[in-house]
């Protein structure tokens, strides 16, 4: 019997509730919906684009191992980033962020309606 608050219960509820929550929103056409790695699910992407005419930004991590690995390989030999913010002192450390984008995998990835792939460095990656 599941115990409320356990990770397994939360994950099942979050994924299972995504479509009903989206359907409760009146008009999300042409809006961009973001989701963490847990919500990076093909069914959810299809629902957003096909059924609701929305866009999505999902995070690919190791819960989608093939997808994540394909994206890592595409950015393995990356050149200069498309955007970099200057280094700043924040939270007691020097922080800098960079972003790379690509459309090279759009026809290759086994994920519906991919329009662009993004790779970024976070402050703690440096």
Description of the molecule:
The chain has 126 residues and is α+β, with helices and mostly antiparallel strands. The protein has a domain of 59 residues. Helix content is 30%, strand content 21%. The strands form three sheets. A three-stranded antiparallel sheet has the order 3-6-7, with helices on one face. A two-stranded parallel ribbon has the order 1-2. The protein is globular and about 40 Å long.
* Share of helical residues: 25-40%
**Largest sheet descriptor:** 3 strands, antiparallel
The coarse silhouette is globular
Computed CA radius of gyration, to the nearest angstrom: 17 Å
User: Span from first to last CA?
Assistant: 43 Å
Order of helices and strands: HEHEHEEEEE
Summed over residues and divided by their number, the pLDDT gives a mean of 87
Number of strands: 7
Number of helices: 3
- Summing up helix and strand content along with how strands pair, one would put the structural category as alpha+beta
**Unreliable spans:** none
Beta-strand content bin:
15-25%
Q: Reading side by side through the largest sheet, how are the strands ordered?
A: 3-6-7
């Amino acid at each position: 019997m599941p115990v409320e608050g356990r990770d397994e219960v939360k994950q099942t509820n979050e994924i299972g509730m995504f479509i009903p929550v989206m359907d409760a929103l009146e008009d999300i056409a042409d809006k961009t919906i973001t989701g963490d790695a847990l919500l990076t699910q093909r069914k959810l992407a299809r629902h957003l684009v096909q059924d609701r005419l929305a866009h999505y930004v999902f995070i690919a991590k190791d819960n989608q191992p093939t997808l994540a690995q394909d994206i890592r390989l595409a950015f393995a030999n990356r050149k200069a980033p498309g955007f970099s913010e200057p280094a700043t002192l924040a939270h007691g450390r020097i922080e800098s962020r960079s972003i790379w984008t690509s459309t090279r995998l759009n026809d290759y990835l086994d994920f519906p309606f991919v329009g662009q792939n993004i790779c970024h460095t976070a402050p703690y990656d440096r």
